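Reader question, answered in our methods column.
A reader sent in the components of a multi-part assembly and asked whether the whole thing could be modeled at once rather than chain by chain. We filled in our standard form and ran it. Here is what they sent:
COMPLEX SIZE: four components
ENTRIES:
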Amino acid sequence: METTVGLRERKKAETREAVHQATIRLAVERGLDHVTVDDIVAAANISRRTFSNYFANKEDALLYGEEQRIRSLLRGVRGRPLDESGWQALLGAVREMLADTGEPDREWAVRTSLCKRHPSLLARQLANHAGLERELAQAIAERDGEDARGMRPRLLAAAFLVALRIATNVWIEEQEARPLSQIIEETLAQIARPFG
Amino acid sequence: METTVGLRERKKAETREAVHQATIRLAVERGLDHVTVDDIVAAANISRRTFSNYFANKEDALLYGEEQRIRSLLRGVRGRPLDESGWQALLGAVREMLADTGEPDREWAVRTSLCKRHPSLLARQLANHAGLERELAQAIAERDGEDARGMRPRLLAAAFLVALRIATNVWIEEQEARPLSQIIEETLAQIARPFG
DNA sequence: GGCAAACTTGCACACTGGGCATGTATCGTA
DNA sequence: TACGATACATGCCCAGTGTGCAAGTTTGCC
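And here is the structure of the entire assembly that came back:
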């Protein structure tokens, strides 16, 4: 998938990943607010100053994986056949993603659980979602030939993300008893149906 | 509405409001990240330490009004006649609120605009919404006689808030040309209708 | 008036984010 | 392969932040 990329780029990616992993590990062990940036850099063998070159703060370091997942989903939507409507493309992209990566890793569940306990994490995660929502609305508007500033594309994008978010929460609360893909299908079906 | 309350309580409320207003004023003047807590406490005539007794940080101070509005909406929903369904109660509460306070003040528009520019504000605002969402889901579940941990009450609450949030954004982007209440009715109608 | 509880304030301290200067690894090119 | 340019890591520094603690001060209540 990736063309051969320079050593410099690879090292950066490795460092970023190492910092991310170290942050998760420490946060799981002690809870994020008993982890300082100094702890993280010690675990990842970099200087505190370097940490700042990669992430603005520890929340970002922890949620880096989430950010990757978000970018991936967005790429998926953009890459769907152009004859699909906006909503179809959203459904297609999420199904494709679940099929590709199989059931999501426990790490994801762990990250999401951490978010529920820690307000500052939840906040940042939702902000990431908001960014995604805007991009999705844009993509949908292009597909359906509408104005991206209109309300319909935005409502579609937002409703879609709501369904994903709630499905994830349910999945985690059920201790991952059912496959996530099944729960997602349910929430997506529910939200696409009229209520009142 | 309020029973006579002690001097102490009144003073606290005044101080909190003063800090809140000072924060908004300064943030509008220079942008929130060119405002320090020291600036705020100077403007509000309190010590830096006291600031922390009221708010955890300047974002919270700025969004205090939003928090009030949220609590008010939640009270509204809880206070709706018990024969209304969850969704009806949501609609009723928001209409009641708009009718009571009339068209929302410019201050609200200003706050919301600030959020769009400043990521840390957006994050905190969305976290507040998440809190409200949980409570709304709870209230809906009670009305409709369902499990609060099931997906339907949550989807209703989330979809409702999505409609409000997007309506607000549209309203602001249109420079408040149309009444907010009208835009809200539109987004609520849209999201309650099937799509795909 | 006077005591207790609640609140404010100043101080101290660990932690954070980021600008700047300097050393070091990598890259592109001749 | 050598070398200049560039990107990156690091250390130092400093303003800003959040919070526990130990006073002082105001308010509530008898």
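What stands out: The CA atoms of residues 133 and 158 of chain B lie 6 Å apart. Residues 63-191 of chain B form a domain with the Tetracycline Repressor; domain 2 fold (CATH 1.10.357.10).
Send us your own complexes using the same form.
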